[in-house]
Write a structure and sequence with these properties.
Elements lengths: L1 H22 L14 H8 L5 H15 L12 H14 L2 H4 L4 H5 L8 H4 L13 H6 L3 H7 L3 H8 L8 H5 L9 H8 L13 H31 L5 H21 L4 H24 L12 H22 L1
Length: 321
């Protein structure tokens, strides 16, 4: 019996030591260096891998040595755990990359050192689900403009029961996720399915629409390469460059246009961009080599001509003598 208990203790200690070694490896990317931002400074310290949190591992080891089975969850503050998770998700998001910090959405004073002062002015109004379009639209103006013309926004604004997507529905609050073509079908299926009866064809069509964006990116790359090669050969690629720029503009506007959630319009725009790239390639292939301009006589040429004239005049002078 003692041997069994001893084995359990040893296994438990080994497990905990492994947990320590894992926790010592940063779970997220290094947080950006944000000067004078107490929000990031404080919430970063609440990460599960911090020294304060690792102290609970030591408590668990002592309990295991005494034959007491326990979970670290018992010794962890649930609010801190939630806050740490939120900060961890933000720290690897595009918002962190571009220094969009807590106070931009939550309010508060990022320069304050004390928790009480830092949290002064916090508001839940801006982050209320129905208000997120206006909050996000402060930075994402074109996306908001397109979203306001969508059926999604009209449903959200009406306050009707049933699914009414807001920004955080698709992008999540802190990870700021951007769904890919391979993820979009399953995600849209949460609302658009045969059970709800809300246009079940949308998920597959959405995946197809985002796939077409990948095709546009490939075609732009091909057209750009073709134009560069032709230009190096001295060909006139002015028209091709103009069509390529049109395609690049369409690609640049893709994120905004997507928020209209009109898949027919979206695909029409993307296909227009693809047609522009193919037109650019065709124009490049048909373009003629630009003839090199006739070189004006340089200084050396002028000297040579002057020498001929001088020789001619000297010859005349000798004959006249």
């Amino acid at each position: 019996m003692r041997l069994k208990n001893g084995s359990r203790i040893i296994i438990g200690i080994v497990f905990v030591l492994l947990a320590i070694s894992i926790l010592q490896v940063p779970a997220t990317a290094a947080a950006p260096n944000l000067p004078n931002n107490s929000c990031a400074d404080c919430h970063r310290k609440l990460l599960f891998s911090s020294e304060a949190q690792r102290q609970f591992i030591d408590i668990r080891i002592k309990h295991l040595e005494s034959g007491i089975s326990c979970s670290i969850v018992c010794h962890e503050d649930k609010l801190n755990k939630s806050t740490a998770s939120t900060y961890a998700m933000w720290s690897i998001s595009s918002h962190a990359l571009f220094d969009v910090t807590c106070e931009k959405c939550h309010g508060g004073n990022k320069s304050a050192v004390l928790k009480k002062d830092a949290h002064e002015g916090l508001s839940s109004i801006n982050i209320a689900r129905a208000n997120t379009p206006e909050t996000c639209g402060k930075c994402h103006e074109s996306e908001l403009e397109e979203f306001k013309s969508s059926q999604h926004f009209k449903k959200l604004e009406s306050g009707q029961e049933g699914p009414s997507p807001a920004c955080i529905t698709c992008h999540q609050a802190h990870s700021v996720k951007v769904l890919t073509a391979s993820e979009i079908e399953d995600f849209c299926s949460n609302c658009h399915n045969h059970i709800t009866g809300i246009n079940p064809a949308v998920p597959k069509n959405a995946e197809k629409a985002l796939d077409s964006v990948n095709e546009l990116e490939v075609e732009i790359s091909k057209a750009r390469s073709t134009i560069i090669t032709a230009k190096a050969k001295g060909k006139d690629v002015t028209m091709a460059e103009s069509d390529l720029e049109s395609a690049k503009t369409i690609l640049k506007n893709v994120p905004s246009v997507w928020h209209r959630f009109n898949l027919t319009y979206f695909e029409t725009e993307v296909q227009k961009g693809i047609e522009n790239t193919r037109k650019a390639e065709k124009e490049t292939a048909e373009s003629q080599t630009t003839p090199l301009p006739t070189k004006a006589p340089g200084f050396d040429g002028i000297l040579l001509i002057s020498a001929f004239i001088a020789t001619y005049l000297l010859g005349i002078r000798r004959i006249s003598r």
